[in-house]
Specification:
By secondary structure, the protein is α/β, with parallel strands linked by helices. Helices cover about 45% and strands about 20% of the residues.
Amino acid sequence: MRSFSRVPALWMPVFVLALLLLVAATACGGDGREAYRIGVMESLTGAGESYGTVANQAKQMAADEINNAGGIDGRPLELVIEDSQCSAQGAVAAYRKLTDVEGIKIILGTSCSGAMLGAAPLAEADGIILFSGLASNPDIAKAGDYIFRTQISDVEVGIGTGTLLRADGISKLATITESTDYAEGVRRTTVAQFEQLGGQVVGEERYASDVIDFRSQLSKLVAAHPEALHLAPQSEFSAGTIIKQARELGYQGPIYAETVSVGTTALEIAGDAATGMKAIVSDLDPANEKGQQVLANFRERYNYVTLPWHLGSAYDDVYIAAECLKQTTDDQDADGFRDCMYGITWSGAIGDNYSFDADGEVVGLSRVVVQILPTGERTPDKKYNVLGPAPKSP
């Protein structure tokens, strides 16, 4: 029997050439055209895993749509994904991998504010684009000229929540806050507005991200006899558990929260305990056909939906990036990409005709007040009623 264990010397050059062509074609998307390569940093593990994962999946769905439609002027889009772990340390490690090893100049992310604040100084110093769809801490607004986000700053959350509390007649408030940049930003801005309008904070508790039982902190807050409880968590798990345990300890007053607390996982854990809770959140407009189609496509592809606005924001970021790549024709041109971002006006899943100001902050989007439905009325696509736009400072 003839052996083919070795390639004959005469055919070796042809064999090697074919192999090199195959490798090159793979790197270029299979059609010989070089792919645009951009980075993605999301919290695939850690406290922000639930929304980091949904953001990552939404970005991949958007990239696949772009490539299936012919790419960016015929060139495919490749996402190089790293886990930022919802922490500054994790984000720095992911950033170094993307920039130093992969040579990436444009990064979409991060999910968590602490991760964003950890990586942003490096990106600004290196002239690397960092474009987040989820991070909301107010300090990000001053992070630099290469830093952008479609997420709305928590300044609006704080003003809206503090104003809502006083409008609802709340004078004495207790707060429980996860010790992260995101959660602290929500608490700080909320309390500042509440106190400015004459409210009093009668109890404050904070907890580390690895805490799973909150009854000790909640018992202290309940003993302070607040008229309302405000929670600012980083993870959906802690949000749902806090709501549930507060009710188990006998707290019957109103609860006020933010976006993470109305996620699918948080409400599944909280169950009936979340009924009636109010929150200031970003929400997809039911009248926005693009946003609703994105949700439908995501559910069909992944068989679940959580935090729809975060999903839509991450999705839009990929399409905005594709448009700027189309204009610059170079994924290494961070300065050109930055200039495109400052000049762009976009309509997508999270809203129509929004843009970015001189700080890279999104302009033209706003938050709403929602109230959680009883468990018997919740559906996979509807867990709360929208009460109206987030209130402004009086």
